[in-house]
Design brief:
This protein is mostly helical. The chain contains 5 helices and no strands. 59% of the residues lie in helices and 0% in strands.
Length: 74
């Protein structure tokens, strides 16, 4: 809650009402993103509600993207 509200400067409930949000393990993230791909999404914007965006982007690229690309997060 604190991270989201600080990042967007708005209450969590409002942010949840205007965009999809996720928090969880890399496998869960890959499964969550995979559902968008299965539904036909070709572009997805990923934002990290953290101070060090570059570090989280690297972690996402290392841990989540390979699972999304293979289509097998399990």
């Amino acid at each position: 809650r604190t991270s989201i509200e600080r990042y967007y400067n708005a209450p969590l409930e409002y942010i949840e009402s205007i965009q999809a949000m996720f928090a969880g393990t890399p496998r869960d993230a890959a499964a969550w993103l995979g559902r968008y791909a299965e539904a036909g999404a070709r572009h997805i914007v990923i934002r990290f509600a953290v101070d060090d965006h570059l570090a989280d982007l690297d972690e996402f690229a290392d841990q989540v993207l390979p699972l999304v690309r293979t289509g097998d997060p399990s």
